[in-house]
Amino acid sequence: MIQTIVNNNLYDVNANFICIGTDEIKLWSSDDASPFVIFLNTKVDFDANGLDYEDYADMIVGEVRSEANYEGIMVIRIK
């Protein structure tokens, strides 16, 4: 389990990947969109969030990839 500091609070992250949506998502989404973090472990998690697991399966730990189809979304391999 990886511990992460968010807004000065330490969180345990039990995921292989995290998907981060930055403030840039407001460029293509509705006005009420806001930044987010989603934990991704399985192909089902990727599918449920509109991502193709095969595009990220070969990532190494610490690698960051921006989602080609949407500005402001990136996936990070954390374990």
User: pLDDT average, as an integer?
Assistant: 83
Helicity level: under 10%
Structural class: mainly beta
Q: What is the molecular shape?
A: globular
Number of domain modules: 1
Uncertain segments are: none
Order of strands across the widest beta sheet? 4-3-6-5
Which range does the strand content fall in?
35-45%
Distance between the termini: 9 Å
Main β-sheet description? 4 strands, antiparallel
Q: How many strands appear in the DSSP assignment?
A: 6
For this structure, the quaternary state is single chain
Order of helices and strands: EEEEHEE
Rg, rounded, reads: 13 Å
Count of alpha/pi helices: 1
What are its keywords?
four-stranded antiparallel β-sheet, 79 residues, 1 helix, mainly beta, two-stranded antiparallel ribbon
Report on the architecture of this protein.
The protein has one helix and six strands, in the order ββββαββ. It starts with a strand and ends with a strand. By secondary structure, the protein is mainly beta. The model has no long low-confidence stretch (mean pLDDT 83). A hairpin with a 6-residue loop joins strand 5 and strand 6.
